[in-house]
Amino acid sequence: MPALRLTPSSKTLEKTQISQPEPRLSAPKSVKKVVLAYSGGLDTSVILKWLQTAYGAEVITFTADLGQGEELGPAREKALLLGIKPENIFIEDLREEFVRDYVFPMFRANAVYEGVYLLGTSIARPLIAKKQIEIARKMGADAVCHGATGKGNDQVRFEMSYYALQPDIKIIAPWREWELTSRTKLIAFAEQHQIPIAKDKRGEAPFSVDANLLHSSSEGKVLEDPAIEADSIVYQRTISPEDAPDKATVIEVGFERGDAVSIDGQTLSPATLLAKLNELGKANGIGRLDLVENRFVGMKSRGVYETPGGTILLTAHRAMESITLDRGAAHLKDEIMPRYAELIYYGFWFAPEREMLQALIDKSQEFVSGTVRLKLYKGNVSVIGRSSPYSLYSQDLVTFEDDQGAYDQKDAQGFIKLNALRLRTLAMRRRKVGK
């Protein structure tokens, strides 16, 4: 659910003159120092100044690099321009931690929300919140602030995580407090306080975008009517499947204990591997999803998601499990997966039940190691081979040729009769009562 953009556009900024009166503002004055999840864009820059104006608080900015693919330098420059001390500006490269400690554990579970959504935005929020709390402790801040709206899921995800990590933290959610309820009012406030506005931000954005190394999501405005096909400009991470090459791309993904570790025999770090899968997915038109989902807050929302590398990874991981997981273990994982995915979507990453499920899932991955060959072609990911030193697949058992006593087919008769006993009993009762 896009609600907070974590990196700014690097396009030219222009200073503006006061042209409209400042909207009336009101807020409690109990906060001395606050850590703001900051992008450098219009919304969070207005939030920064609003915190200074309405709360009189010292602001610490935190900008996370989660693989959005945009420069972070402008966020620092903008924060300095708005009066933030250099020692109060935090910019961190979290790409490896994001994939290693959040994305990969989630993919061990094969987690998809409502059957299709790979949770690209959902899984990023607990990491951002965790870093905000760490900075708050380090800097002696008594509050944290996010830019999520009061209608979306992100407010829940951020605040659930804050409270789980620091139960007495003060949380500021401007969109639930201030009167800047429109883009016009935001721009008026920016003009009133000499906040630079990117030229391309003055007009009304056609849709809202959130991005990280796992995915890109687009929502709102031109996408609000679910009956209308999304325009091609919405798609940023993938080419159209129709425009993808006519020749398939074949790759091999290596796994160790449930995590992807290599592509075509080359060992890669988690973030580097996912970035490479993104490139392969983009070039072959893989990972597009047009979804109407059920938000935690109660409403339905239409979003367009692109998860090229994640789509490939999910297919590969399930193929690896198909030969290394026992049937009971595999089926149990599939039973708990919707619950696990729901917990992440709702913002319960740090809840004990998610951690308990993670322990079960991680135990199941002990022998999920080997390689999977995949064919990428015009939006599709097809498994064409899989092998593992821990494979449970036995050609001696499944062969139609002489199995030399590995499996006595006559045993199946008793197996079937025992399993059919209750069905036969029910059938005899129906015959007896004439129904």
Question: Notable features of this structure?
Answer:
435 residues; alpha/beta; Rossmann fold; 5-stranded antiparallel beta sheet; 38% helix; elongated; disordered N terminus
Please write the CATH class name of the largest domain.
Answer: Alpha Beta
CATH topology description of the largest domain: Rossmann fold
Overall 3D geometry? elongated
Give the overall pLDDT as a whole number.
Answer: 91
* Category by helix and strand content: alpha/beta
The low-confidence parts are 1-25
Please, how many domains? 3
The biggest beta sheet reads:
5 strands, parallel
Protein described:
The protein has 435 residues and is an alpha/beta fold. The protein has helices at residues 42-55, 73-81, 95-108, 125-139, 154-165, 183-192, 270-283, 308-324, 327-346, 352-364, 395-398, 411-433; strands at residues 13-14, 33-37, 58-65, 89-93, 143-145, 170-172, 197-198, 208-211, 216-219, 249-256, 259-263, 266-267, 288-294, 300-306, 370-377, 380-387. Strands 4-3-2-5-6 form a five-stranded parallel β-sheet, with helices on both faces. Strands 12-11-10-15-16 form a five-stranded antiparallel β-sheet. The protein has a four-stranded antiparallel β-sheet with strand order 8-9-14-13, with no helix packed on it. It is elongated and about 85 Å long. The protein starts with 12 loop residues before the first strand and ends with a helix.
